[in-house]
Amino acid sequence: MSKKNKRPEESEKKLSREEEKKKNESQEPEELEEFGCEEKLADCQKEVEEYKDRYLRAHADFENMKKRLEKDKSTAVMYANEAFATDLLSVIDTFENALASIDKIQGDEAVEKIKEGIALTYEQLLKVLKKHGVEEIANEGVFDPHVHQVVQQVESDAHEQNEIVHVLQKGYKLRDRVLRPSMVSTKK
């Protein structure tokens, strides 16, 4: 069948649809109100606003998550060497003990050269650690539970209460994170 040989029923339906369409277009706004179009429009606008609000909230959540992940990533990079630095603290302790032991020995030039070599190595190790953010915790003044650990309390007339009297083991921190608290004695 060709296009020209359409059934008459189809052409009548097409004409009636076109007439109905023209009739609807020519209706006044008051007649449209009868069909509830303004209410539907208001509902649609409200729905659009709700979707817009949801989108803005989802976008804000996404941005916050991005910032949080970026912060977590930078923190992880900043403290990546924490375990390594903690392991090196025992090496520092050994150097300090070696230097203290050699100080007690009075002797010849060879002992002095060994002492000098150990002292230079110790200083170089401290410089490298400091370069990477590891620093000794200050142990003067009043006890701070965030960075000090009281091992013993002693009587002392020269110190105030809770003031550090003696440092038994040095403490260290990596940037703002404590690697090892200082072991101290305080006045009772």
TrEMBL record:
Pfam families: GrpE. Gene3D superfamilies: 3.90.20.20, Head domain of nucleotide exchange factor GrpE (2.30.22.10). It is found in: Cytoplasm. SUPFAM superfamilies: Coiled-coil domain of nucleotide exchange factor GrpE, Head domain of nucleotide exchange factor GrpE. GO terms for biological process: protein folding. Its main location: cytoplasm. CDD domains: GrpE. InterPro entries: GrpE, GrpE_CC, GrpE_head. Residues 7-26 have a biased composition (Basic and acidic residues). Residues 41-72 form a coiled coil. GO terms for molecular function: adenyl-nucleotide exchange factor activity; protein homodimerization activity; protein-folding chaperone binding; unfolded protein binding. It comes from the Bacteria. Residues 1-35 are annotated as: Disordered. Keywords: Chaperone, Coiled coil, Cytoplasm, Stress response. One of its GO terms (cellular component) is cytosol. Belongs to the GrpE family. Homodimer. NCBIfam families: PRK14140.1 (NF010738), PRK14149.1 (NF010747). Participates actively in the response to hyperosmotic and heat shock by preventing the aggregation of stress-denatured proteins, in association with DnaK and GrpE. It is the nucleotide exchange factor for DnaK and may function as a thermosensor. Unfolded proteins bind initially to DnaJ; upon interaction with the DnaJ-bound protein, DnaK hydrolyzes its bound ATP, resulting in the formation of a stable complex. GrpE releases ADP from DnaK; ATP binding to DnaK triggers the release of the substrate protein, thus completing the reaction cycle. This is Protein GrpE. It comes from Nitratifractor salsuginis (strain DSM 16511 / JCM 12458 / E9I37-1). The lineage of its organism: Bacteria, Pseudomonadati, Campylobacterota, Epsilonproteobacteria, Campylobacterales. The gene is grpE.
